[in-house]
Amino acid sequence: MEKFKFLLLLWMFCLTSCNNGNNEYVSEKLIPELSYMNTSVDPCENFYQYTCGNFKNVHPLPEDQYNWDHFTILQDEIHQLAADILKSVRKDTDPLALQKAKAAYTACLNVNYADKLKLPEENFMLEHGIWPVISLEDTDIEVSWNLVGDFVAEYGVPLFFNFQILSNYWDPTDNFIYLYRDAISNPSTIYGKLEEDLDDFLGTAGGRVSRSTDDGSKSEPIPFESFLRTVAFYLRDVVGTWKDDEKIIEDVAEIISFMRVLQPGGFVEDTAEILPLDNLITVGELQEWTDSQFGEDYPINWVDYFNHLFKASGVAITEDVKFYHDGARLLYGVLNLFQKAEPRLLKNFIMARLFTYTGC
């Protein structure tokens, strides 16, 4: 303890001496942060003011900022340095990765070039059919669990369920599939948006005070519903279906209503009799439970579904693979909702989730 006190006092002495210009070995040029100190304050009275009291004078708060600290300043400097590097002329002597990064950065700034590219949503619809939200025709639509597995495998967006592969702590070669609720979360930046005030917060997806218009009211839609409307209107104009705005708004509201039922765990009737199911079972036992609960005609083969879902792994899923879940009620609710929903609504929801991540 005495040694720690001595080192702390020595450190404070060095800083104070340096800040007063009495130390010829350490200067503010070597440690710019020393200029943040306010040595007119007694450190025993207010240590924070002593060490950081001059920061506001060295780095005044910019007019367009409401949070300003050393880490924010450093982050801005790094961003500016990265931009300067990427804007610089490509050279043959540059590492290959840097050459590619410069090319990608230049392409992003080339608006004319970017405008000629097809939207990822357009390419998706060319392969999988038009988004029913913007379609004028109610064409035959088929949605299967295997198709859902293919979408999750290709795009990495959870649909209906969420999955992880977990290992046995005592045997790392013993893995099992863990199924849990899909929270239907939206993509977000690494650095979250800091709202300046309450009004700003309520105008973002973080504010949950407004309602969906699916109840026929004239209230403002929630932010995510507005986002889906904007995507649908834009894709409708790009594809050229010219579907009526009101019809699109109704379809989007239906998607939001579906998500509200799915998110807490699907649809479970008050009179539902859910068969018991152990939490840790095999995929084969999961199939037996599903057949007993819904009948053998229920359109899911769990082995096939999991093989579609995990096809990129190159691992074959069999009936003997272990399976862990958060409860039979969750399984029943989601499987039941999938069975009762119209294929058109299922496809609308699936494409809405995928388009949320591809961006428009």
UniProtKB/TrEMBL annotation:
Keyword Nucleus annotated: no
Domain Peptidase M13 N-terminal: 43-355
CC annotations in GO: plasma membrane
Signal peptide (from-to): 1-21
GO terms assigned for molecular function: metalloendopeptidase activity
Lipid bilayer topology: Single-pass type II membrane protein
Protein name in the entry: Peptidase family M13
Organism (species): Popillia japonica (Japanese beetle)
Matches recorded under Pfam families: Peptidase_M13_N (PF05649)
SUPFAM superfamilies recorded: Metalloproteases ('zincins'), catalytic domain
The family this protein is said to belong to: Belongs to the peptidase M13 family.
Domain of life: Eukaryota
InterPro entries per UniProt: Peptidase_M13 (IPR000718), Peptidase_M13_dom_2 (IPR042089), Peptidase_M13_N (IPR008753)
Gene Ontology biological process terms, A to Z: protein processing
Localization in the cell: Cell membrane
Record keywords: Signal
Statement: the UniProt record of this protein carries the keyword Signal: yes
Cross-referenced PANTHER family: FI17812P1-RELATED (PTHR11733:SF167), ZINC METALLOPROTEASE FAMILY M13 NEPRILYSIN-RELATED (PTHR11733)
